[in-house]
Design brief:
By secondary structure, the protein is α+β, with helices and mostly antiparallel strands. It has a domain of 98 residues: Cytochrome b5-like heme/steroid binding domain (Flavocytochrome B2, Chain A, domain 1, Roll). Helix content is 26%, strand content 21%. Strand 4 and strand 5 form a beta hairpin. The longest helix has 17 residues. The radius of gyration is 22 Å and the shape is globular. 19% of the residues are buried. Bound molecules: protoporphyrin IX containing FE (HEM). Protoporphyrin IX containing FE binds next to helix 3, helix 4 and helix 5. InterPro entries: Cyt_B5-like_heme/steroid-bd, Cyt_B5-like_heme/steroid_sf, Cyt_B5_heme-BS, Cytochrome_b5/Flavoprotein_Rdt.
């Protein structure tokens, strides 16, 4: 048996032959067919890093709001649709995700597609299992009327 293969036996005990087995240094999958688009995040931009950054973001966001929480119209959200000032509405809640952009595992570009808009459908299309209310709790700006 080579380093990169391991003998696998079926429950019956009948050997199923040599199966490729990924070990350190082994070639990775040759096809990414069906894989989802994941970007490489810059160092210091993991989910844990985001949690640590959030408190600071909350201060920045709240210091700019005339009141909290805000009651917003769709048109108000639309005014914040750039990389430097990015709001998104998710499930009727509006978040300032400017600081989160570089931490998104799906990349900045995907988030900018919904900048200033209702991103609920897109969000649910890609990852309904992600708990945005928890991840973006400190980024809440207010509610859409
Ligand atoms: C602002 C709210 C959003 C948050 C908090 C968020 C959060 C996340 C998180 C935590 C992941 C990793 C999921 C995992 O590994 O299971 C992820 C991946 C991803 N997201 Fe988002 N996302 C948001 C919005 C969006 C939107 C609007 C899109 C599409 C337009 C999108 C597209 C993607 C893609 C393509 C991935 C990579 C999928 C993969 O893991 O392979 N996300 N996002």
């Amino acid at each position: 048996m080579s380093d990169r293969t391991r003998e696998f036996a079926r429950p019956s005990g009948r050997p199923s032959g040599r199966m490729p087995f990924l070990t350190a240094g082994s070639p990775q999958m040759v096809s990414n067919r069906g894989a989802r688009e994941k970007v490489v995040l810059a160092p210091g931009h993991s989910a844990v890093d985001w949690e640590a950054r959030k408190r600071e973001e909350t201060k920045r966001i709240r210091s700019r709001l005339p009141q909290f929480p805000m009651r917003l119209r769709k048109e108000d959200v639309k005014l914040h649709a750039s990389r430097d000032d990015c709001w998104v509405s998710l499930g009727g809640k509006v978040y300032d995700i400017t600081g989160y952009l570089d931490y998104h595992p799906g990349g900045v570009d995907k988030l900018l597609l919904v900048a200033g808009k209702d991103g609920t459908a897109m969000f649910n299309r890609y990852h309904p299992w992600v708990n945005f209310e928890r991840m973006l709790d400190g980024c809440l700006v207010g509610f859409v009327l």
